[in-house]
């Protein structure tokens, strides 16, 4: 016979998942301002006061949903990365970048919640220790680890420390201290530049800011990936989508 405590724990875990699923649907449809705990409680068959037995506040629930979205995105990126055979860092970086765009284009409201204006006041600072902050660091770590692996396997040209503007150099040094492996500041500068190109292009596509020129932004994205590949010395790792 199953232990009553074990059954209660399973039921509680199922209820927590149901609550987060309902909250995600509301957040995606209405944004953080439209999240009403009473409506979520009603959808999962609870009273509003009963909901507080599972989440102490609206903010705690929103943060957990954000953490779930980050984890879903990270699982998608890691699956794409790990499917590359043989596991060359350059190929993994390009494939993971492509997977990031695919998830973003396929989940515009969720992407907006994590990375757009909807995230203001919802996604906490990544220096925190809450579930959303931890999940956010996991996301950043995927790309950071891949770029470090690319550089350590075959160093690409980077600016010398003396060529970096002093304030920029100081900020890069602070950021570099958070990495698991110490890298030259020039590598950090190149990484940041590449990320701005990747992230900025995906944001513009998801939020509709390229429609003035492009119906389909995929060719532009692939051209940028090839250019980044050349900058990082991994152009041979770029292959057409679907290959």
CATH architecture of the largest domain: Orthogonal Bundle
Instruction: Give the overall pLDDT as a whole number.
Output: 90
Helix and strand succession? Answer: HHHHHHHHHH
First CA to last CA: what distance?
52 Å
Indicate the CATH topology of the largest domain.
Answer: Tetracycline Repressor, domain 2
Shape: elongated
**CATH classification class of the largest domain:** Mainly Alpha
Gyration radius from CA atoms, angstroms = 21 Å
- What's the CATH superfamily of the largest domain, by name? Tetracycline Repressor, domain 2
- The percentage helix is 55-70%
Q: Please report the number of helical segments.
A: 10
Total domain modules: 2
Keywords: DNA-binding, Transcription, Transcription regulation
Protein name: TetR/AcrR family transcriptional regulator
Domain HTH tetR-type: 13-73
Organism: Geodermatophilus arenarius
Describe this structure in words.
With 243 residues, this protein is mainly alpha-helical. It folds into two domains: 1-56, Arc Repressor Mutant, subunit A (Orthogonal Bundle), CATH 1.10.10; 65-237, Tetracycline Repressor, domain 2 (Orthogonal Bundle). The protein is 65% helix and 0% strand. It contains ten helices and no strands. It is elongated. The mean pLDDT is 90. Keywords: DNA-binding, Transcription, Transcription regulation. Pfam families: TetR_C_33, TetR_N. Residues 36-55 bind DNA. This is TetR/AcrR family transcriptional regulator.
